[in-house]
Design brief:
homodimer; six-stranded mixed β-sheet
Chain lengths: 417, 417
């Protein structure tokens, strides 16, 4: 009888569900069996950078996975990388990595953990800072740690290899950070480390360093990166394509209702992996309207952070404001001109004012590329003559930029508030 | 009037003489002028590894240069790299870099400095160990230091770039050592660092790190690497091609007399640069016999470490033992068979026994390559029939391997002791 035969296969399936990689499922199974036998919870590590304290749905992907572990009785170690944040980027090249002082870190960490406990169980979470052990580490300890890894293997990390190939400078200190992150796993005696799929390399370093230190290597689990509301880039506050977990129920619900049907399918897979296949099947068979599926996804996310009744209310309010005007739910933005349809529209100004483009120059470039359509027809000039087209007397224009950006432009008194 | 115009040009010429590179002569000139004006001696750094305490003529090349500085009133900092020696090679790849304990380091350092003061002026030498500041360095200090240098620039070092290209592993700790060596120059406030020409890269790192720390960058001076008695490889104890400064006068003198005339010219340039051109001219014009030039070189080196009368005596004894037997002075080794010339000789055994090759298999390979000659004729087989050649009845055979290795093999009672 192997250890894994003692493991609850349903629990294992739940833990593995929604991941992009697990190294390895067998080891996880064995480790769960050992934990069960010894009556101890597993230690599940998540590393976080204390400089970005505003959580959004993208962050919840790994947090949901940690919650799965907690519901099975395991302990989450929420590790704040304060040590490296205090150092910043000593080469001074990346402005985004200025050194943080301890007070800033403490404040950021408090903001971060407050939000994290919207998903995690506080009772089953250890919040740690790596300065605990890194402040005591000497230069000679660090040199010995560096002896466990080769330059060639560090350069395999995608971003390093690209920068090295393109002759963009890599500071030597940058090679040390994955090793320090790996050392944290040794110090914490992590059984499992969870991260986004872009963290795969760093998580593997921890696994290998634990082996070099004679420890059972941590199992690594990576989770998919959530695309932002634009459906193109990784969700990020700085790109403005995020749904923040502290936004109001109306904002959250509205943003989720604005995503495309295609993106909705991917968000289901990532945010609600237990349910994604059933919903996709129902939408495909026609038994579930995409709009209804999207509203359920939105209400579920709102409910996680604001409770079920707030979610229900947000949905009602959304319906009142939008559905009653029979505007399409997806890809909707409103621009109120407060006047009836003029005979000619300066399109770059319209695109920028409506938020579809960032600037008039971007708008002009996109028009020149043939990427802008009004009511389905590619725009040939920067002016749109509304009286050219007799069929287009409706004071609501559908304006599209590329495949992903679109809005209804509503003129006249019919504009909603 | 610039600073350099105040400098003693003769002193500057002397300091620059015999170097392979100075970065830069102008800066050295300026620094000497500043020192003179401020009435302070310059601080001249030499870094040494405490794991190899047996000094040979190869080491004396840089020590002679340091002595030049001392005779002009400057201070030599003889820095023992005990910090890194205590760490050894944490990757465990290089057996030669096992960690040393403090007692071993103390013992090695004492042996080392004892020998160094055969050349250096003890009164104008500071002996330091880099553990003084490196033991206090924290991991975060080291990370900040690493931020001053890029991966690409470290990989420019010849040995790193070759290993990287050939996909031989480089431990990340190895990237840190040149930075630590450079940091030593900051800690010591070195004005000048001296080293072998193979140290050029490391010395430049120190210069650049001093700049990053807002200090006047050290001037670097590199000196040529002395070839061993074989005339091929760098002088090294492990290769057995060295002349140790603690060897007896007879051993030192005999080894120097064994080198080729060509190598003698290069040793003059490196060991006696003030005299090399005059000697070369005299040998070329025939006014000085190469043997006499070589004997002077030998006597001078012996005199440095054992005094003039010991040098004279060594020369007399050498003449008695060798010249009276009319054996050529260069490329002489003796192998006593204590028997008359046999009709057939097994050459691989002879080569190995006489020290010309390291093993019989090496000897067989060299014979097959046509690299072995006896009495000037290329050997075609591994057996040498002495009775094949009526002219070769002399019981002294000249055995040559390649261009550099040769010995006289003396049989019979005529062998000298």
């Amino acid at each position: 009888m192997t250890a894994s035969s003692a493991v609850d296969e349903a629990a294992l399936d739940r833990l593995v569900r929604g991941t992009t990689a697990v190294v390895s499922r067998d080891e996880l199974s064995d480790r769960l069996a050992i934990a069960a036998k010894e009556g101890r919870p597993l230690r599940i590590k998540l590393g976080a950078d204390p400089s970005a304290p505003d959580l959004h749905l993208g962050h919840t992907v790994v947090l949901n996975k940690l919650r799965d572990f907690q519901e099975l009785g395991h302990t989450v170690i929420f590790l704040i990388g304060d040590f490296t944040a205090r150092i910043g980027d000593p080469s001074g090249r990346s402005e985004g990595r200025r050194p943080l002082d301890p007070e800033e870190i403490r404040r950021n960490a408090a903001t971060y953990t407050d939000q994290v406990f919207a998903i995690l169980d506080r009772e089953r979470t250890e919040v740690r800072m790596n300065s605990e052990w890194m402040d005591r580490m000497t230069a000679s300890d660090l040199i010995r740690l560096c002896g466990q890894y080769t330059v060639a293997r560090i350069l395999e990390r995608d971003d390093f290899s690209a920068r090295f190939r393109e002759q963009r400078p890599i500071g030597i200190h940058e090679f040390l950070y994955p090793l320090i992150q790996g050392y944290d796993s040794i110090a914490l005696r992590a059984d499992v480390e969870v991260g986004g799929s872009d963290q795969r390399f760093n998580l593997l370093v921890g696994r290998e360093l634990q082996k070099s230190h004679g420890m059972a290597p941590q199992i690594i689990m990576t989770l998919p990166i959530l695309e932002g509301t634009d459906g193109v880039q990784k969700m990020s506050k700085s790109l403005g394509n995020y749904v923040g977990i502290r936004e109001s129920p109306d904002e959250m619900f509205g943003k989720i209702m604005s995503i495309s049907d295609e993106l909705m399918g991917r968000w289901y897979e990532i945010l609600e992996p237990h349910d994604a296949r059933a919903v996709a099947d129902q939408v495909r068979s026609g038994s579930l309207h995409p709009r209804e599926a999207k509203a359920r996804l939105g209400a579920r996310q709102v409910a996680k952070f604001h409770g079920q009744s707030a979610a229900d209310l947000a949905r009602e309010r959304f319906d009142e404001r939008f559905r009653k005007h029979e505007l399409p739910e997806s890809m909707v933005r409103l621009w109120e001109a407060g006047e009836s349809l003029p005979p000619e529209i300066v399109v770059p100004a319209l695109l920028t004012k409506s938020g579809l483009t960032k600037s008039n120059s971007e708008a002009r470039r996109l028009i020149a590329q043939g990427a802008v359509r009004i009511d389905g027809r590619v725009l040939a000039s920067e002016r749109y003559r509304t009286d050219d087209d007799a069929s287009n007397r409706d004071p609501v224009l559908l304006v599209e930029v590329g495949k992903r950006r679109a809005c209804r432009v509503v003129f006249s008194g019919r504009a909603v508030t």
